[in-house]
Amino acid sequence: MKEIKITGASGFVGKNLVNYLGKDYQVNTLSLRAVSNLIINPKDEVIIHLAGKAHDLQQVADPSAYYEVNYELTRKLYDAFLKSNAKKFIFISSVKAVADVVEGVLTEAESPKPLTHYGKSKLQAETYIQNQPLPQGKMYYILRPCMIHGPGNKGNLNLLYKFVKKGVPYPLAGFENKRSFLSVENLCFLISKLIENEAPSGVYNVADDEPVSTNEVVRILAASLNKQAKLWAISPTFIKSLAKFGDKFGLPLNTERLTKLTENYVVSNDKLKNALKINLPLATKEGLMLTASSFRN
User: Fold this and answer.
1) Which residues, in sequence order, are bridge partners of residue 3?
2) What are phi and psi of 144, to 5 degrees?
3) Distances from the Cα of 136 to the Cαs of 2, 77, 82, 86, 133, in angstroms?
4) Contacts of 110 by beta carbon, 8 Å cutoff, 6+ apart
5) Maximal C-alpha separation, the chain
6) Contact predicate 257/156, CB 8 Å
7) Residues contacting 34, CB < 8 A, separation 6+
8) What's the burial of 219, exposed, middle or buried (CB within 10 Å: 0-12/13-18/19+)?
9) How far is the C-alpha of 129 from the C-alpha of 189, rounded, in Å?
10) In whole angstroms, what is the distance from residue 191 CA to residue 8 CA?
11) Residue-by-residue DSSP string for 234-296
12) Considering the chain, what is the average pLDDT of its residues?
């Protein structure tokens, strides 16, 4: 049985991925706390690097922490991979390594212009991987997922779900947007296909097929509860003013969270699907419904 090494196995994506791959592979976990003595087992054939410092919505983290975790640890792990017997290195980066605002559809041809320390540190790690000579027989895959959701997810979808469950009207219905989401099930499926098949080394965006509006997401969450969605179209100008007030006083609705809920952020997944010659198992709305159902547990 092929052996897989995973970092970040205790996180939301890691737990789902370990369960998914554990059916077909020997999955071993790796803690990066002792990176000074980092040695990859000779039997490990694939390294999947999930561990990293997540984006800080409260903006209280020390900026240097992003580079220490997202860049330095990735560099050390990738150096160890190059010296090991492992054949494939899969690095989970982020679309935020490319753009914080998307006009049109984001593809891999876009020139990276990250604005946050999170995005810049991820891009720094990507650049390091791409700049190292790649030995014969080895491959790397840099995956840039958009917003990931699924069982165990504690992000904005969970927050929206709680509002819908309580019967609170969604007050941002006046914003019209389209954004891409990524079911953790689809992400796990794509990673498994990269393990099984040989695609060209490089950078790949990862997203579900169909972008949806936040209003549609609210309707899906309501449907999962057998409720009618309550959409309240308050003036966007007024809402933006409230968000600025939230910035000053640390309220749940701040400018960054408002942007995440109402921005356009459409991501193309064509390159990866074409490289693997596959279709995704879950449609966007189906994946969102499964995530919503998991919140009830």
Assistant:
1) 26, 44
2) -110, 85
3) 20, 19, 10, 12, 10
4) 98, 99
5) 60
6) yes
7) none
8) buried
9) 23
10) 15
11) --HHHHHHHHHHHHHHT-SS-HHHHHHHH--BEE--HHHHHHHT---SS-HHHHHHHHHHHTT
12) 92
Report the Cα–Cα distance between both ends of the chain, in Å, rounded. 33
- On whether the CB atoms of residues 215 and 171 are closer than 8 A, the answer is no
pLDDT band at 61 (very low <50, low <70, confident <90, very high): low
Residue with tokens 């689809």: 186
Residues 6+ apart with CB under 8 A from 250: 58
Contact between 186 and 124 under an 8 Å Cβ cutoff? The reply is no
Residue position matching structure tokens 């560099």: 75
Written as one string, the DSSP assignment of 31-74 is: -GGGGGG----TTEEEEEE---PPP-TT--S-HHHHIIIIIIIH
* Multiple choice CATH, 3-153+181-207+266-281, 1.10.10.10, 1.20.200.10, 3.40.50.720, 2.60.40.1510: 3.40.50.720
> Which residue type is seen at 68?
E
The 8-class DSSP code of residue 112 comes to: P
Encoded amino acid at 94, one letter: S
Question: Which token pair is 111?
Answer: 């020139």
10-32: pLDDT as tens digits? 999 999 999 999 999 999 998 87
Residue type, 291: T
285 has a pLDDT exceeding 90: yes
Residues 6 or more apart in contact with residue 133 via CB below 8 angstroms: none
Asked whether the beta carbons of 239 and 174 are under 8 A apart, the reply is yes
Domain locations along the chain? 3-153+181-207+266-281
Q: Match 């995530």 to its residue by tokens.
A: 291
d(CA 94, CA 117): 12
Neighbours of 81 (CB within 10 A): 26
- Confirm whether pTM is higher than 0.85: yes
